[in-house]
Write a sequence for this structure.
């Protein structure tokens, strides 16, 4: 399956972001990834940001992207494309650097391999960058919880939940999360997941 099999979400009426906007978007996403416990993705994004700034192969991947790169999650689309290449065996040289390995952006071999992969798979990555991103966030459970509680109240029956993969199963553990809605709370107080929508 190729990225071109999926519908595009590019906004043909939107303006193309400037190079500085693109670099800023990739660096901002890198900061978010680092803060949220994804140091490898943060490393990849930092390398891509530098390559974008230098006008390297990464720039060619996003040269026809239009819209807001942050709102459209362009950096995640790009890294998702790279991960797809690795997972499908199309980027064997890059595969050895992906987790559980722990390369750093200070490793010249990692940087060269990453940029060579971007250059070699420019068309695939360009098509992938036009796709929408499905993020997996436990925060969605906060929106579902009210409905689940109402169903339980009306039926007094156990709730059996099936998820088709939209959040990688994260919402299946919704009853294990702690919720705080103003002064009201629900769920285990000791839960490591604390949601305050």
């Amino acid at each position: 399956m190729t990225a071109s099999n999926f519908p595009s979400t590019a906004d043909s009426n939107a303006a193309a972001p400037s190079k500085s906007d693109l670099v800023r978007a990739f660096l901002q996403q890198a900061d978010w990834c680092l803060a949220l416990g994804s140091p490898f993705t943060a490393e990849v994004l930092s390398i891509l940001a530098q390559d974008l700034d230098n006008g390297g192969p990464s720039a060619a991947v996003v040269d026809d992207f239009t819209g807001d790169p942050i709102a459209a999650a362009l950096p995640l689309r790009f890294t998702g494309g790279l991960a797809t290449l690795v997972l499908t065996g199309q980027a064997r040289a890059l595969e050895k650097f992906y987790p559980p390995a722990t390369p750093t952006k200070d490793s010249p071999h990692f940087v060269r391999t990453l940029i060579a992969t971007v250059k070699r798979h420019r068309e695939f990555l360009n098509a992938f960058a036009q796709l929408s991103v499905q993020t997996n966030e436990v925060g969605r459970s906060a929106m579902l919880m009210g409905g689940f509680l109402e169903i339980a109240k009306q039926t007094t029956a156990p709730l059996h939940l099936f998820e088709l993969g939209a959040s990688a199963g994260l919402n299946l553990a919704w009853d294990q999360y702690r919720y705080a809605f103003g002064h009201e709370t629900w769920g285990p107080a000791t839960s490591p997941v604390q949601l305050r929508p």
